[in-house]
Amino acid sequence: MTNVLFAFGLTLFAGLSTGIGSALAFYTKQTNKKFLSAVLGFSAGVMIYVSMIEIFSEARDSLEIIYGETKGYWITTIAFFMGIALIAIIDKFVPSIENPHEMRDVGDMQDDIKDFELLRMGLFSALAIAIHNFPEGLATFTSALQNNTLGISIAIAIAIHNIPEGIAVSVPIYYATGDRKKAFLYSFFSGLSEPVGAIVGYFILIRFFNDAMFGLIFASVAGIMVYISLDELLPTAEKYGEHHVAIYGLISGMGVMALSLLFFA
Questions:
Q1: Largest CA-CA distance found in the chain, in angstroms, rounded
Q2: CA distance 260 to 93
Q3: What's the DSSP call for residue 133?
Q4: Nearest C-alpha neighbor of 36 from the set 19, 24, 26
Q5: Predicted local distance difference test score (pLDDT) of residue 82
Q6: Do the beta carbons of residue 188 and residue 13 sit within 8 Å?
Q7: What does the alpha-carbon distance between residue 118 and residue 110 come to, in Å, rounded to a whole number?
Q8: What is d(CA 117, CA 127) in angstroms, rounded to the nearest whole number?
Q9: Phi, psi at residue 20, to the nearest 5°?
Q10: pLDDT of res. 113
Q11: CA distance 191 to 189
Q12: What's the CA gap between 150 and 264, in Å, rounded?
């Protein structure tokens, strides 16, 4: 139970970091693009490295024990791409009026004067982020249950990428309504779907949880995280800063993750 509570706490921290983005937006006239680009690249590096090197490997080991080397490897690979397919389908059916992937500079939103369009953009961004955060919550929670160090690394990476999503929700709502409290709450609660995803996933899957289920979930989680990194984090990092800033952040994230696994895993 202690491990479950720890995993849930990490998931809650990652999800509610949208509130950090919201709070920062109120006191920032212009986005620090290079810094945001670097930390988003860093987050992508952490998630890609840990997915391909650690999570996929652990899933494969678990499934090979049950199904044998060849069949276990096949099942792991299929589950990995099923995770990618799941998050891609979610992405496809997210409301497309204002996708949170298309994040805008704080200053650009401040210059907008069409209040209704701004409000609609903020509300749809909140809904889209809530939908996206659901499988991310399950990914963080499952990883933390298996390995505390791994869970902490993933939670921090997801928290970093949730900060600009908080900006995407709060800024348009604030400039449409003039209400800081309302803007903050919409942003804050859009992140709650992450711990909700953890709770729902836990109570649905706990009765079936065994080595085979663990391997399938972990392989799917690896696919989800690789997709998020390539579809959300890197394009946003490129948009906010110079190409090489994003790449240096990416490599730094991989390096830090590699060292943390070597010393603490």
A1: 62
A2: 36
A3: H
A4: 24
A5: 95
A6: no
A7: 10
A8: 15
A9: -65, -45
A10: 45
A11: 5
A12: 9
Q: Residue 68: left (phi > 0), alpha (psi -120 to 50), or beta? A: left
The CA-to-CA distance between both ends of the chain, in Å, stands at 21
What's the length of the chain? Answer: 265
Closest CA to 37 of 160, 121, 120, 134: 160
Q: What is the DSSP letter of 191?
A: T
Query: For residues 109 and 172, is the Cβ–Cβ distance under 8 A?
Result: yes
Q: Which long-range contacts (CB under 8 A, 24 or more apart) does 254-259 make?
A: 254/45, 254/46, 254/48, 254/49, 255/45, 256/42, 256/45, 256/46, 257/45, 257/46, 257/49, 257/50, 257/153, 258/49, 258/53
- DSSP 8-state symbol, 17: T
pLDDT lower than 50: segments of the chain: 97-102, 109-110, 112-113
Sorted by sequence, the CB contacts under 8 Å of residue 27 that are 6+ apart come out as none
Rounded to whole angstroms, the Cα distance separating 250 from 50 reads: 12
The tokens describing 237, both together, are 């990092």
Structure tokens at 156: 């921090």
